[in-house]
Amino acid sequence: MFIDKTSYMEYNPEYLFAVGKLRVYERKLINKAALTKLIECNDFGELVSILSERNYSDNISSVERPEDLENLIFDEMSNTIGKIKKLSHDKEATNLYLFRYDIQNLKLMIKATKNSEDVNHALLYRSIIDTENLEDSIKKENFYVFSDSFRDKIKTIWLEEVQQGNLQEAEILLDKLWLETGYCHMKEREQIFLRDFFSVLIDLYNLKLIFRTKVMSYDQERVREYIAEGGFIDKAVILNSCNMKQEGIVQSFQFSDYNKIIKQGLEYFERYNSFWKFEQLCNDFLIEFVDIVKFLVASVSVLIRYLVIKEIELKNLRAILIGKNNGLSHEQISQNLGCAYA
Predict the structure, then answer these.
(1) What is the pTM of this model?
(2) Per-residue pLDDT tens for 58-78?
(3) Which SS3 state, helix, strand or coil, does residue 242 take?
(4) DSSP per residue, 33-47
(5) For residue 341, is it within any domain?
(6) 34: domain range?
(7) What CA–CA distance (Å, rounded) separates 342 from 29?
(8) CA distance 37 to 41
Protein backbone atom coordinates (compact mmCIF):
# COMPACT_ATOMS: atom_id res chain seq x y z
CA MET A 1 0.00 0.00 0.00
CA PHE A 2 1.44 3.38 -1.01
CA ILE A 3 0.03 6.38 0.81
CA ASP A 4 0.65 9.85 -0.57
CA LYS A 5 -0.28 11.98 2.45
CA THR A 6 -0.30 15.18 0.40
CA SER A 7 -3.21 13.80 -1.66
CA TYR A 8 -5.28 13.76 1.52
CA MET A 9 -5.05 17.51 2.09
CA GLU A 10 -8.59 18.94 2.05
CA TYR A 11 -9.70 22.41 3.05
CA ASN A 12 -13.29 23.48 3.38
CA PRO A 13 -13.76 26.62 5.51
CA GLU A 14 -17.21 25.36 6.54
CA TYR A 15 -15.44 22.75 8.67
CA LEU A 16 -13.23 25.09 10.68
CA PHE A 17 -15.80 25.19 13.48
CA ALA A 18 -16.07 21.39 13.43
CA VAL A 19 -12.28 21.01 13.61
CA GLY A 20 -12.16 23.25 16.68
CA LYS A 21 -15.06 21.44 18.32
CA LEU A 22 -13.47 18.03 17.74
CA ARG A 23 -10.16 19.23 19.21
CA VAL A 24 -12.09 19.99 22.43
CA TYR A 25 -13.71 16.53 22.36
CA GLU A 26 -10.35 14.87 21.77
CA ARG A 27 -8.90 16.40 24.93
CA LYS A 28 -11.46 14.41 26.91
CA LEU A 29 -10.88 11.08 25.21
CA ILE A 30 -9.71 8.28 27.49
CA ASN A 31 -5.92 8.62 27.24
CA LYS A 32 -3.33 6.11 28.43
CA ALA A 33 -3.26 7.52 31.95
CA ALA A 34 -7.05 7.36 32.31
CA LEU A 35 -7.08 3.88 30.78
CA THR A 36 -4.59 2.72 33.41
CA LYS A 37 -6.74 4.24 36.19
CA LEU A 38 -9.83 2.43 34.86
CA ILE A 39 -7.96 -0.88 34.78
CA GLU A 40 -6.53 -0.49 38.28
CA CYS A 41 -9.58 0.90 40.10
CA ASN A 42 -11.34 -1.65 42.29
CA ASP A 43 -14.36 0.39 43.23
CA PHE A 44 -17.44 1.01 41.08
CA GLY A 45 -17.77 4.57 42.36
CA GLU A 46 -14.17 5.34 41.43
CA LEU A 47 -14.73 4.00 37.91
CA VAL A 48 -17.80 6.21 37.47
CA SER A 49 -15.82 9.20 38.79
CA ILE A 50 -13.04 8.64 36.21
CA LEU A 51 -15.56 8.43 33.37
CA SER A 52 -17.35 11.59 34.52
CA GLU A 53 -14.08 13.50 34.03
CA ARG A 54 -14.06 12.45 30.37
CA ASN A 55 -16.74 12.81 27.68
CA TYR A 56 -19.20 10.68 29.62
CA SER A 57 -20.54 13.34 31.97
CA ASP A 58 -23.76 13.83 29.93
CA ASN A 59 -24.94 10.26 30.53
CA ILE A 60 -23.15 9.28 33.74
CA SER A 61 -26.07 10.29 35.97
CA SER A 62 -28.05 7.29 34.68
CA VAL A 63 -25.36 4.86 35.89
CA GLU A 64 -26.34 3.54 39.29
CA ARG A 65 -25.23 -0.10 38.99
CA PRO A 66 -22.41 -1.88 37.14
CA GLU A 67 -25.04 -3.33 34.77
CA ASP A 68 -25.87 0.21 33.61
CA LEU A 69 -22.40 0.68 32.10
CA GLU A 70 -23.26 -1.27 28.94
CA ASN A 71 -26.17 1.10 28.28
CA LEU A 72 -23.80 4.01 28.94
CA ILE A 73 -21.51 2.77 26.15
CA PHE A 74 -24.36 2.63 23.65
CA ASP A 75 -25.69 6.02 24.75
CA GLU A 76 -22.22 7.54 24.40
CA MET A 77 -21.82 6.19 20.86
CA SER A 78 -25.31 7.31 19.89
CA ASN A 79 -24.64 10.80 21.31
CA THR A 80 -21.36 10.95 19.39
CA ILE A 81 -23.21 10.03 16.20
CA GLY A 82 -25.67 12.86 16.92
CA LYS A 83 -22.85 15.37 17.38
CA ILE A 84 -21.19 14.31 14.13
CA LYS A 85 -24.45 14.63 12.20
CA LYS A 86 -24.85 18.22 13.47
CA LEU A 87 -21.29 19.17 12.52
CA SER A 88 -21.45 17.73 9.01
CA HIS A 89 -21.85 19.82 5.86
CA ASP A 90 -21.78 16.70 3.67
CA LYS A 91 -24.75 14.66 4.81
CA GLU A 92 -24.41 12.09 2.04
CA ALA A 93 -20.84 11.11 2.90
CA THR A 94 -21.46 11.28 6.65
CA ASN A 95 -24.66 9.24 6.47
CA LEU A 96 -22.99 6.64 4.31
CA TYR A 97 -20.40 5.99 7.00
CA LEU A 98 -23.01 6.17 9.77
CA PHE A 99 -25.03 3.59 7.85
CA ARG A 100 -22.69 0.97 9.31
CA TYR A 101 -24.51 1.39 12.63
CA ASP A 102 -27.87 0.86 10.94
CA ILE A 103 -26.44 -2.32 9.41
CA GLN A 104 -25.39 -3.37 12.94
CA ASN A 105 -28.93 -2.72 14.16
CA LEU A 106 -30.33 -4.64 11.21
CA LYS A 107 -28.13 -7.67 11.96
CA LEU A 108 -29.13 -7.60 15.64
CA MET A 109 -32.82 -7.37 14.78
CA ILE A 110 -32.65 -10.13 12.17
CA LYS A 111 -30.97 -12.44 14.67
CA ALA A 112 -33.59 -11.62 17.34
CA THR A 113 -36.45 -12.10 14.87
CA LYS A 114 -35.27 -15.47 13.60
CA ASN A 115 -34.56 -16.67 17.15
CA SER A 116 -37.98 -15.46 18.36
CA GLU A 117 -36.36 -13.10 20.85
CA ASP A 118 -37.31 -9.58 21.92
CA VAL A 119 -35.06 -6.80 20.66
CA ASN A 120 -33.26 -4.88 23.40
CA HIS A 121 -33.75 -1.34 22.10
CA ALA A 122 -31.34 0.02 24.71
CA LEU A 123 -28.56 -1.76 22.79
CA LEU A 124 -29.38 -0.24 19.41
CA TYR A 125 -27.49 2.71 17.96
CA ARG A 126 -29.43 5.89 17.18
CA SER A 127 -28.02 6.46 13.73
CA ILE A 128 -29.80 7.34 10.45
CA ILE A 129 -32.78 4.99 10.38
CA ASP A 130 -35.36 5.07 13.17
CA THR A 131 -35.07 1.75 14.98
CA GLU A 132 -38.83 1.25 15.37
CA ASN A 133 -39.35 1.75 11.63
CA LEU A 134 -36.43 -0.58 10.96
CA GLU A 135 -37.99 -3.27 13.14
CA ASP A 136 -41.35 -2.79 11.41
CA SER A 137 -39.78 -3.10 7.95
CA ILE A 138 -38.17 -6.40 8.97
CA LYS A 139 -41.46 -7.79 10.26
CA LYS A 140 -43.15 -6.80 6.99
CA GLU A 141 -40.15 -8.13 5.02
CA ASN A 142 -40.27 -5.16 2.63
CA PHE A 143 -37.38 -3.12 4.14
CA TYR A 144 -39.09 0.14 3.19
CA VAL A 145 -36.73 2.21 5.36
CA PHE A 146 -33.82 1.66 2.95
CA SER A 147 -33.09 3.45 -0.32
CA ASP A 148 -33.91 1.56 -3.53
CA SER A 149 -30.33 0.45 -4.20
CA PHE A 150 -29.93 -0.99 -0.70
CA ARG A 151 -33.47 -2.34 -0.42
CA ASP A 152 -33.25 -4.72 -3.39
CA LYS A 153 -29.92 -6.15 -2.25
CA ILE A 154 -31.09 -6.55 1.35
CA LYS A 155 -34.22 -8.33 0.11
CA THR A 156 -32.01 -10.73 -1.84
CA ILE A 157 -29.89 -11.45 1.26
CA TRP A 158 -33.08 -11.93 3.27
CA LEU A 159 -34.54 -14.45 0.80
CA GLU A 160 -31.37 -16.33 -0.08
CA GLU A 161 -29.67 -16.41 3.32
CA VAL A 162 -31.84 -15.39 6.27
CA GLN A 163 -34.88 -17.38 5.18
CA GLN A 164 -32.63 -20.41 4.73
CA GLY A 165 -31.32 -20.03 8.27
CA ASN A 166 -27.88 -18.80 7.17
CA LEU A 167 -27.63 -15.90 9.63
CA GLN A 168 -23.83 -15.71 9.74
CA GLU A 169 -23.66 -15.69 5.93
CA ALA A 170 -26.26 -12.90 5.86
CA GLU A 171 -24.20 -10.80 8.28
CA ILE A 172 -21.09 -11.20 6.10
CA LEU A 173 -22.96 -10.11 2.97
CA LEU A 174 -24.53 -7.11 4.72
CA ASP A 175 -21.06 -5.94 5.78
CA LYS A 176 -19.82 -6.42 2.23
CA LEU A 177 -22.76 -4.41 0.85
CA TRP A 178 -21.97 -1.44 3.09
CA LEU A 179 -18.23 -1.51 2.39
CA GLU A 180 -18.48 -1.72 -1.40
CA THR A 181 -21.16 0.97 -1.49
CA GLY A 182 -19.03 3.29 0.64
CA TYR A 183 -15.94 2.73 -1.49
CA CYS A 184 -17.77 3.36 -4.78
CA HIS A 185 -19.38 6.53 -3.45
CA MET A 186 -16.12 8.03 -2.18
CA LYS A 187 -14.35 7.09 -5.41
CA GLU A 188 -17.02 8.74 -7.54
CA ARG A 189 -16.94 11.85 -5.35
CA GLU A 190 -13.11 11.91 -5.51
CA GLN A 191 -12.87 12.06 -1.72
CA ILE A 192 -9.38 10.58 -1.68
CA PHE A 193 -8.87 9.94 2.03
CA LEU A 194 -12.32 8.42 2.58
CA ARG A 195 -11.90 6.32 -0.56
CA ASP A 196 -8.64 4.93 0.80
CA PHE A 197 -10.17 4.55 4.26
CA PHE A 198 -12.90 2.33 2.82
CA SER A 199 -10.20 0.42 0.92
CA VAL A 200 -8.47 -0.29 4.24
CA LEU A 201 -11.77 -1.39 5.80
CA ILE A 202 -12.35 -3.70 2.83
CA ASP A 203 -8.85 -5.17 3.23
CA LEU A 204 -9.48 -5.88 6.91
CA TYR A 205 -12.86 -7.43 6.09
CA ASN A 206 -11.24 -9.66 3.45
CA LEU A 207 -8.39 -10.65 5.79
CA LYS A 208 -10.99 -11.74 8.34
CA LEU A 209 -12.57 -13.83 5.61
CA ILE A 210 -9.27 -15.71 5.25
CA PHE A 211 -9.47 -16.54 8.95
CA ARG A 212 -13.11 -17.65 8.61
CA THR A 213 -12.23 -20.17 5.91
CA LYS A 214 -10.00 -21.98 8.40
CA VAL A 215 -13.03 -23.06 10.43
CA MET A 216 -15.93 -22.84 7.95
CA SER A 217 -16.36 -25.23 5.03
CA TYR A 218 -16.90 -22.59 2.36
CA ASP A 219 -16.56 -23.76 -1.25
CA GLN A 220 -14.70 -21.59 -3.78
CA GLU A 221 -17.91 -20.12 -5.16
CA ARG A 222 -18.98 -19.02 -1.69
CA VAL A 223 -15.59 -17.46 -0.97
CA ARG A 224 -15.70 -15.50 -4.24
CA GLU A 225 -19.16 -14.24 -3.32
CA TYR A 226 -17.94 -13.01 0.07
CA ILE A 227 -14.79 -11.19 -1.09
CA ALA A 228 -15.39 -7.43 -1.20
CA GLU A 229 -13.88 -5.41 -4.05
CA GLY A 230 -12.19 -2.04 -3.73
CA GLY A 231 -9.40 -2.88 -1.31
CA PHE A 232 -5.67 -2.40 -1.76
CA ILE A 233 -5.17 -6.18 -1.74
CA ASP A 234 -6.00 -7.83 -5.05
CA LYS A 235 -9.01 -10.13 -4.98
CA ALA A 236 -6.93 -13.00 -6.40
CA VAL A 237 -4.47 -12.73 -3.48
CA ILE A 238 -7.31 -13.08 -0.99
CA LEU A 239 -8.78 -16.03 -2.86
CA ASN A 240 -5.42 -17.82 -3.05
CA SER A 241 -4.74 -17.16 0.64
CA CYS A 242 -8.01 -18.84 1.58
CA ASN A 243 -6.54 -22.08 0.20
CA MET A 244 -3.20 -21.80 1.98
CA LYS A 245 -1.99 -23.07 5.33
CA GLN A 246 -0.89 -20.67 8.06
CA GLU A 247 2.78 -20.58 7.04
CA GLY A 248 1.93 -19.80 3.42
CA ILE A 249 -0.44 -16.99 4.36
CA VAL A 250 2.10 -15.36 6.67
CA GLN A 251 4.76 -15.60 3.98
CA SER A 252 2.45 -14.07 1.36
CA PHE A 253 1.94 -10.97 3.51
CA GLN A 254 5.42 -10.65 5.01
CA PHE A 255 6.13 -7.42 3.09
CA SER A 256 2.60 -6.05 3.43
CA ASP A 257 1.44 -3.25 5.71
CA TYR A 258 -0.84 -5.88 7.20
CA ASN A 259 2.00 -8.27 8.08
CA LYS A 260 1.63 -7.81 11.85
CA ILE A 261 -2.14 -8.28 11.71
CA ILE A 262 -1.80 -11.48 9.70
CA LYS A 263 1.12 -13.00 11.60
CA GLN A 264 0.03 -12.32 15.17
CA GLY A 265 -3.69 -12.49 14.47
CA LEU A 266 -3.46 -15.84 12.70
CA GLU A 267 -1.21 -17.35 15.37
CA TYR A 268 -3.72 -16.39 18.06
CA PHE A 269 -6.65 -17.60 15.96
CA GLU A 270 -5.04 -20.98 15.29
CA ARG A 271 -4.32 -21.42 19.00
CA TYR A 272 -7.58 -20.15 20.54
CA ASN A 273 -10.07 -20.11 17.63
CA SER A 274 -10.79 -16.47 18.45
CA PHE A 275 -10.76 -13.26 16.43
CA TRP A 276 -9.83 -11.21 19.52
CA LYS A 277 -6.16 -10.54 18.64
CA PHE A 278 -7.03 -9.91 15.01
CA GLU A 279 -9.68 -7.35 15.97
CA GLN A 280 -7.31 -5.66 18.42
CA LEU A 281 -4.59 -5.32 15.77
CA CYS A 282 -7.12 -4.04 13.22
CA ASN A 283 -8.22 -1.32 15.66
CA ASP A 284 -4.61 -0.28 16.24
CA PHE A 285 -4.06 -0.14 12.47
CA LEU A 286 -7.17 2.01 11.95
CA ILE A 287 -6.11 4.53 14.60
CA GLU A 288 -2.73 4.88 12.91
CA PHE A 289 -4.35 5.28 9.51
CA VAL A 290 -6.96 7.90 10.42
CA ASP A 291 -4.39 9.87 12.40
CA ILE A 292 -2.59 10.60 9.13
CA VAL A 293 -5.09 13.38 8.45
CA LYS A 294 -5.20 14.92 11.93
CA PHE A 295 -3.54 18.15 10.77
CA LEU A 296 -4.07 17.77 7.02
CA VAL A 297 -7.77 18.24 6.55
CA ALA A 298 -10.69 20.49 7.32
CA SER A 299 -13.47 18.45 5.75
CA VAL A 300 -15.93 15.65 6.40
CA SER A 301 -12.91 13.35 6.84
CA VAL A 302 -12.21 14.80 10.31
CA LEU A 303 -15.69 13.74 11.43
CA ILE A 304 -15.16 10.16 10.28
CA ARG A 305 -11.73 10.15 11.91
CA TYR A 306 -13.22 11.12 15.27
CA LEU A 307 -15.95 8.48 14.98
CA VAL A 308 -13.35 5.76 14.40
CA ILE A 309 -11.29 6.86 17.41
CA LYS A 310 -14.37 7.10 19.63
CA GLU A 311 -15.64 3.68 18.63
CA ILE A 312 -12.29 2.08 19.46
CA GLU A 313 -12.24 3.89 22.82
CA LEU A 314 -15.63 2.36 23.64
CA LYS A 315 -14.39 -1.08 22.63
CA ASN A 316 -11.53 -0.66 25.11
CA LEU A 317 -13.95 0.45 27.81
CA ARG A 318 -16.17 -2.56 27.14
CA ALA A 319 -13.12 -4.87 27.33
CA ILE A 320 -12.20 -3.42 30.73
CA LEU A 321 -15.73 -3.98 32.05
CA ILE A 322 -15.84 -7.55 30.75
CA GLY A 323 -12.41 -8.24 32.24
CA LYS A 324 -13.46 -6.94 35.65
CA ASN A 325 -16.70 -8.93 35.55
CA ASN A 326 -14.72 -12.09 34.74
CA GLY A 327 -12.25 -11.48 37.56
CA LEU A 328 -9.22 -10.94 35.34
CA SER A 329 -6.07 -9.39 36.79
CA HIS A 330 -4.99 -5.88 35.86
CA GLU A 331 -2.26 -7.33 33.65
CA GLN A 332 -4.69 -9.63 31.86
CA ILE A 333 -7.11 -6.77 31.21
CA SER A 334 -4.27 -4.61 29.84
CA GLN A 335 -3.29 -7.35 27.41
CA ASN A 336 -6.86 -7.44 26.10
CA LEU A 337 -6.86 -3.78 25.09
CA GLY A 338 -5.90 -2.03 21.91
CA CYS A 339 -3.90 1.17 22.05
CA ALA A 340 -5.43 4.31 23.53
CA TYR A 341 -5.62 7.22 21.10
CA ALA A 342 -4.17 9.96 23.30
Answers:
(1) 0.92
(2) 777 777 887 788 888 888 888
(3) coil
(4) HHHHHHHH---HHHH
(5) yes
(6) 1-73+299-342
(7) 7
(8) 6
